[in-house]
Amino acid sequence: MPESASFPSDALEWVTSRGMGALAEKMGMEFTEFSPERAVARMPVAGNTQPVGLLHGGAYVVLGESLGSMHANLHAGPGRLAVGIDINATHTRSATEGWVTGVCTPLHLGRSLTVHEIVVSDDQGRRCSTVRITNMVRDLPAS
């Protein structure tokens, strides 16, 4: 990604100052790493569970979409916006306590489309869910 005078060189600082949005904040998500190569965030299981005590499947998807969309917007750069157009998730394990961590890596970073894979693991490093998101990158409308 080309550096720009209007774009901070520290991507973690950029994403932290931008914020994750109200839903991600309610769910307790925290970015721990953010760079052009990958993005990492964690989320507590507590407060994000189904009635039977398992982390809600939708919570995995929200974590994945938050990571993938924010990383796509980093790639898009100033004056452009990335918006999700497709997302899917495969849940392979259920977290019941502690935290889950999502590691987002780009599979494709194009001018108009990005594709990211997010692997969500529990505190023991066991994969719980694999999320894939496709974002469309557009120029911001003139204001």
UniProtKB/TrEMBL annotation:
<feature type="domain" description="Thioesterase">
    <location>
        <begin position="53"/>
        <end position="128"/>
    </location>
</feature>
<protein>
    <submittedName>
        <fullName>Hotdog fold thioesterase</fullName>
    </submittedName>
</protein>
<comment type="similarity">
    <text>Belongs to the thioesterase PaaI family.</text>
</comment>
<dbReference type="InterPro" id="IPR029069">
    <property type="entry name" value="HotDog_dom_sf"/>
</dbReference>
<dbReference type="Pfam" id="PF03061">
    <property type="entry name" value="4HBT"/>
</dbReference>
<dbReference type="InterPro" id="IPR006683">
    <property type="entry name" value="Thioestr_dom"/>
</dbReference>
<dbReference type="InterPro" id="IPR003736">
    <property type="entry name" value="PAAI_dom"/>
</dbReference>
<keyword id="KW-0378">Hydrolase</keyword>
